[in-house]
Amino acid sequence: MKRTTKVVNAMIAATTILIIISVFFAIRGFSVIRNTTTASGQDFLLQSTQYVAKIVQLSMKNRHQSLSYLTINENWTSIESPMTLIDNQTSLVPFFKSLNGESETLIYIDREGTPMNAISWDSKTKRIGTINTENIMPYLEKDPSLTKMIDSPAAEQNSDSYFIEKQAYLNFYHAINNRAGDVIGYLIMPLKLTVFYQNFIQDFELEYKGYPMIKDRSMTVVMHPVDEQIGLSIIDGRKELFPTLHYEDLQRLEKYQLEHNEGSLTYKSYWWDEKTPREAEKIGAFEWVDVGMAHWVISINADYRERNDEIINFVIVLFCILLLLLLLIAIFTFFLRSFRKQEKIEEENKHLIAKHQRQKAQHKLEWQLSQRNKLETVGLLTTSIIHDMNNFLTPIIGNLELLMQEYQDQPILHDDLHEVLQSAQKGDKLLSNVMRFSRESDSIQEVVDISSAITVAAHLISGIIPKKIPLKINVQQQMGLVPLEEIDLQNVIYNLITNAYQAVKTSVPHPCIWVTAKKVTEGHPNGPNRNYVILEITDNGPGVPAELQKQIYEPFFTTKSADEGTGLGLFAVASIVAKYDWQLDLRSSPQDGTTFSIRMPLTDLTL
Hints:
Layout: H1 2-73, H2 83-87, H3 92-98, E1 105-110, E2 115-122, E3 127-130, H4 137-141, H5 146-151, E4 162-164, E5 167-177, E6 183-192, H6 193-200, E7 210-215, E8 221-223, H7 236-241, H8 248-259, E9 262-271, E10 278-291, E11 294-303, H9 304-307, H10 309-339, H11 342-406, H12 411-438, E12 446-449, H13 450-462, E13 471-475, E14 481-484, H14 486-504, E15 513-524, E16 527-539, H15 569-579, E17 583-589, E18 593-601
Parallel strand pairs: 13-15
Antiparallel strand pairs: 1-2, 1-6, 2-3, 4-5, 5-6, 7-8, 7-11, 9-10, 10-11, 12-14, 15-16, 16-18, 17-18
Helix pairs in contact: 1-10, 11-12, 13-14, 14-15
Organism: Vagococcus allomyrinae
GO molecular function: ATP binding; phosphorelay sensor kinase activity
EC number: 2.7.13.3
């Protein structure tokens, strides 16, 4: 009996020690997972912040370029009255429309900074009007960088940010030169940063609660989803509105941001987009950027607890399991001390362990099945959405083509419709590429006359290339037959011609594209001669840099802007070439342009 008691006590002690060790490792594991998740969240937010920073810098540069184009298109050196521009609204109306409400004012000052003329845009009536120079003085008097710009003409594209009645602004500058090249004045465009934020930043989506914001070098809020926050310093200004809140962590955040160019950290703050600010633990990232004379810190924050709900749930489950184990030990001890039935207790213990292992294995299988179902659901949802969007785009494209035919006698409207049609066609092409690579389908190949197929595809695609860029087609006739899907050949030719068009449309004075195809015969020492078709698409553009030639076939890799390419064109070409086991070669240099060569074996079959 005593021996049994000692064994029981030893087992209880050992089990208790095991649970204590398990609790220790559970707590340590929680800490490691928590730190890892926090670091992952910070990295994600830092990448998102860098992305938003690029958007801000590129968008601001685009606004300055628009002002430059306006200055080039209008003869500002001959302006004696703003009515000259008001009467000729050919450039001004599209210019203001393109700004989407971000600016409704243009100011012309002389070389010494004296305002001479000012015009305004009424977004409701779509008309240009004049402004009394007294009414535009706040834009000049509040501008902290105007004097520096006048002392150093064209040094920067824009001013530092400033505030007028709790609204943040930024002035864009462009020097006006006379025919001799001397600066005689400046064109100034005040930009409403609140509207700019709404157009480009506010809709930036986060997986968790949070938002992006921008502050200047004095830590005053320049852009924020809450209008009341604009113009406030993140500590002193907010203390005036909410004196009972705690700002110790915000002081730490401010100091850290002022001492580092970029970074991430966790801190306690409040959700300022709520009527009554709610205290929250946040995870945030930031990056300092220069936009003209403005030096801003762009930051994105997210709810720390929301990001770590899974860890908290894991800890709760873990401690519940440990409590359950403690309860089982208590029950186990009770039965051992009460009945002294060692064999029965051991069997029950083995049974419980086996049951726990089965439950663990079952839970793992259920989790794997759940993950697989999620992936299948995402695939089905993607296919369904693309199918529906194709259904939406088809009537849009058809009606746009009909409208273009109907309004051929109105060049401006016809050009606008053509631009919309091109965008719709690009969207339709992108959806087709995504659909093509997001589902498996059986290949239905036919033996086609390759000469006719290449000629037809090239002539079809030539219709979308502007007439000013000649497309020269030289296809050898009766080359033979090739087994393929014609849509694949059309996709290859379409993407290569489109790529060639984008390479030459603005880079060379006399652009041209060539499509050639010829039959070649090669001898083989171990068999009969083989016949091939060599399809080449050539342009006289600047060529592909050597360091990029290995990357151009990667999906989503592109050197073009977001409006010109998706990075899927050459990836689609390479995928189709691999599908048929063809050979794709690239020859490119700044002197000779670029040639994509596709080698296709001919079949001995006949139609």
